Amino acid sequence: SENTTANIQDMVDQSLEKLEMSSLHRYKQRVIKINSYSTKLTSGRVTTIDFDVGYTNCLKYEWVDDASTCQFIEHLPRRHCVSEVWERLWLKNGRKIEVTCQDDETPLEAHVEFESADIATRLAQQALKHIEAKYPHPKKQQLVRIFSLEKQVVAGIHYRMKIEVGLTDCLALSVQDNCHLINDGTPNRFCRVNVWLRPWTDHPPNFRVTCDYQAGAMTDMYHHVQAEQLFFNFITTYKPEYINDHVEMTKRFEIFKENVKKIHELNTHERGTGVYAVTRFTDLTYEEFKSKYLGLNPNLKKPNQIPMRQAEIPKVHQLPASFDWRPLGAVTEVKDQGACGSCWAFSVTGNIEGQWKLKTGKLLSLSEQELVDCDKMDDGCDGGYMDNAYRAIEQLGGLETEEEYPYEAEDDKCSFNKSLSKVQISGAVNISSNETNMAKWLVHNGPISIGINANAMQFYVGGVSHPWKALCNPKNIDHGVLIVGYGIKEYPLFNKQLPYWVVKNSWGPGWGEQGYYRVFRGDGTCGVNTMASSAVV
What we know:
Helices cover 26% and strands 26% of the residues. By secondary structure, it is of the alpha+beta class. Strands 12, 14, 16, 17, 18 and 19 form a six-stranded mixed sheet that branches. A five-stranded antiparallel sheet has the order 5-6-7-8-9. A hairpin with an 8-residue loop joins strand 8 and strand 9. It is elongated. 38% of the residues are buried. About 2% of the residues have low confidence. Belongs to the peptidase C1 family. GO terms for molecular function: cysteine-type endopeptidase inhibitor activity; cysteine-type peptidase activity.
C-alpha cells in the first residue's frame, strides 16, 4: 500500500542517516535501490530491509536541498546493506535501527583525531546557537556535557561530536548570564553535531545539528510558545504604549515572532563573535525601525554639487595593532537620538567634536538639534545625509554646543544664533574605502563619520559582529555612525583573528557594548567602508 511504501522509505532514510553518521568517507551516500523488505512480529515489529547505496559527487557535510541532484560516482563500488528496524513503543523515539553493509568502506584521504577539551567546549557553545534555533524553547539552553569529539581532515576540517544540553533559569535570546540548569521534569536533549570548516574560504563554519526526535508540528509550536513568553517579558520590561490595545498587541506579537526567527538566523550565520538577542527594537518591522532610529538617506545628495575632495592618507610604516580615541579625550559621551531619524547629525557632530579636540585641545559636545532644525538640505527627523550636513554647517556659520541648543528628538523651528557658534568648519573630505587607509587616517586625524547597514544592529548585544553578507547588504547603507578606534580579537576556536572597528552609535549607553558596536574590519562588512568622511576644521 501507499502507506507501507512511505513507511519503508522513511526507515531507509533513517538507516542512511545512521550510516552517514558512522561513515568516515568524504562523499555523501545515496540509496540506489531497495531490493526487498520483510516484517515479522515478535515482542514488537521488526522490519528487515535489503538495499544498495552508492557514493555521490556531493561532499558528505555539504548542505544539499535535494540529495537526488547528487550524481553517483561510477568508479567507487556500491555498498550492499541490510537494516533491521525494531519498532517498540517503549523505545526512545519508538525505533531502534541497526545497519550493516558488505564491502565495508575504507575511508579515503581521512585522518581522525580526538580534540582537546578546550576546543570541544568552544565548538559545543557555537553548536548551541544552532540547537536553540532548530529546537526552540522559552528557556535558554546550556551545555551539560560533551560525550565525544573527533576531528577529521577531509576536503577541509570536519568535527563530529555528541553533546547533552539542558534548560536553564534564564530566558532564551536574552542577555542574562549566570544561568543555572533547572530540573523541571523536561528531559535533557542528546545531540549530534557535525561541523565542516574550510579555512581557505570566506564561508562561516557549516554546523549541522540533530537532537532527539522532534516533529515539525512540535517545532512550530515551540517557536510560538518561545515567542509568546519572550514577548510577555518584553512588554513587562519596556511597557509599550499599546499594552492595553488588544488589536495592536496582536499585530506587535506577530512582528516580534518574525524578529525572533531573524535573531536566530543572525546567531546561526554569525562569522565572528557577535551575539544577537531580544532588544527594545524587537517589536518593530525593519521599515519602522529604519524610519524611527536610523535616518541616513543618500538619496538626499544634491545633483550637480561639487564633490568633496579626497583626503590625503598619511604615510605610516607600521600601524599600531589597536587604537582608540576614547581614552585620549576626543570622544564625547554616548548620546541618544530617540525616535527621530537624525543619526546623520550625530555622526557629523561626533566627527567635528573629535576634529575640534585635536585642533584646540578642547572637547565640546556639539548640537545635533541645530542640524535637525536648520539644515534645509536635509529632512530633520525624516532623514539626512552627512555630505549635506557639512555644507549646511559652513553656510550657517558653525555649530552651537549641546548646552546652548539642546536636543529635543523632534523637528522644530530653527533658533540658531551665529554669535553663540563655538565651532566652525572650512569644508569636508571623503576618506578612502580601503580599510587599512581608513585606519591610517583615523590614527593621525581623529574619529571618522561613516554610513553602515544597520540590519544586524537592531538586535546586537555584544561581540565582534560579522554577519553573513546576505543578512547585511553593504550596498544598503541606512545609518550614520562614528568610527572611534579599532582592534583585534583573538578567536582561538578556528585559529584566526578578528580585526574590528569600534563604532560609536547614538542609541544611548544601554544599547550594545555601552553604546558601542564592534564590527569586523577588512572586508567591507555591512558597507562600513563605503561612506567614510570628515569635516575640515
